[in-house]
Description:
Strand content: 15-25%
CATH superfamily of the largest domain: Dihydrodipicolinate Reductase, domain 2
Structural class: alpha/beta
Oligomer: single chain
Amino acid sequence: MATRNPKLGLKDMKPKIYIDGEHGTTGLQIRTRLADRRDIDVLSIPIAERRNEQVRLDLLNEADIAILCLPDAASRQAVAMLEGNNSTRVIDASTAFRTDPDWAYGFAEMTKDQAERIRKARLVANPGCYPTGAIALIRPLRAADILAADYPVTVNAVSGYTGGGKQLIAQMEDESADDHISSPHFVYGLSLSHKHVPEITEHGLLARAPVFSPSVGRFAQGMIVQVPLYLDRLKGSPSLADIHAIIQDHYAGQDIVELVSLDDTAGLMRIDATELVGKDTMKLFVCGTSGGGHVNLIALLDNLGKGASGAAVQNMNLMLAA
């Protein structure tokens, strides 16, 4: 941790956090989450200096942790600006480094030891919102070896429109805009080559890329991710109760990912994509009828909570605890 001022003891130092891209959708939400923190100093670039690369360089190198909320190319540039600096730790919210083996993947609940890996890492790749839900459902079954690596996985998902950043927000909210989107719901990624597919494949431990079909609803925040499976195509033809037990064991001992009981799930008429808006947790559901031959695994989260900004703050907290 920082010891830049020799007049202060280590206990007197507050870690310095710099959000590169603090005025974007993810950055603003991170800044809001840190607004009342008294245990850190948040560095901020003045509006008038936003395009001043020297000021940006200085802040990146002054920070104990730099959180990058930037497009992929700009994130790579920021990391390059830290070349030779081994003291600034980085959390990157872009897709640039999510499958890079030199970066710790920032889904702390993914495995029993992932939080510790994040805690010790200098470079952490914050997960995508869709992949967080998909991997949360797939990884336990792969780890238990009941889902084959080459199973033809399908992932269907709907997100709040804030997941598309400022451009999509404007398209959805500004009715006077030439490119205004009036649809209550639309499917995109029609080429089936969405940028999140490599991340889901890598961290879902899949040998075959999943068919990923994302969509956007006319609500600002929230997300549902679904992974339907044939039970007789899984090893040992497990029951719904078997699937539930495997997922429950995988996430035992932590309080971020909640697996809803089979009884509670059976009593539901619907799942609302906006239920967890403003929260940094995630709910998982095992849906189906006993003996029906199918299971639908569902993840519910806030696309800007556990799906982006909330996850970045969680990773920052882990790194500060190192």
